[in-house]
Amino acid sequence: MPVALEQTTFSARTERVAGDLPWIEDAGEVAPQDARALSKLFFDQLQLLEEGTREYHYARDTLIEMNRSLVGFAASRFCNRGSGDLEDILQVGAMGLIKAIDRFDLSREVEFSSFAIPCIVGEIKRFFRDTSWAVHVPRRLQELHLELAKAKERLAVVLGREPTVHELAEELGLSDDEVIEGLMASNGYTAGSLDIPSGNDHGSDPGPTYADILGDCDPAMDLVEDLHALAPLLEELDDRERHIVEMRFGQEMTQSQIGAELGVSQMHVSRLLAHTLTKLRSGMLTET
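== RNA polymerase sigma factor SigF ==
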């Protein structure tokens, strides 16, 4: 049924577009109460339009923009979790909104917002469950972590203190070992910053951070290993080869100086040295 422009109650500028849908210049500016009424109209027409057409995309995109406020409302519940960037949460929530639009059925006779918000919240919860852990933890332990957190809150109110492992196990119908495993897995939820001071100094100078004292690979260790592997290979060289290596790398003599010492040309020294080094490299690779 065509909708006359004068019958619309929203303040955004409109004009007739293909079919029975009005043209909304900026769907994101439509007031929530107007979005509810217009959403019914757009959903009704979306079922009649052919998927992939310009009109279909217009109706679907307008529904998304008109109902983005639902994403903000749902995301506000997760802003104080201490992990996850708000922009990421809003993007994930928008995916939940799109899924809700694609799945919504007018025949259910429920408000779209009542259907969409659980979809958006579910998508955000999955985001936190799957991506907010600092290290990879099996899904079973992620879910146990959530159950333990809820149980600890319930028991803390009843007991007036933090519950013990055994009390948590009884509350959840688990063994003590399963609870301990879940509590240990909770350590993987967040990772401490390397910029945190490493000491307990409460003065004006917080002291060095963990990053300042973090160990690193010592390149000299690789050199020790190489020399250890090289020693028996040097023993396998003949006297002249070993003497050339000693003069070149131990005494740091040039090839010309070595040639003068041995009574041969610099070119001959170069060939001898290349042959010897090739033999040593091959032996090192074999050892590796």
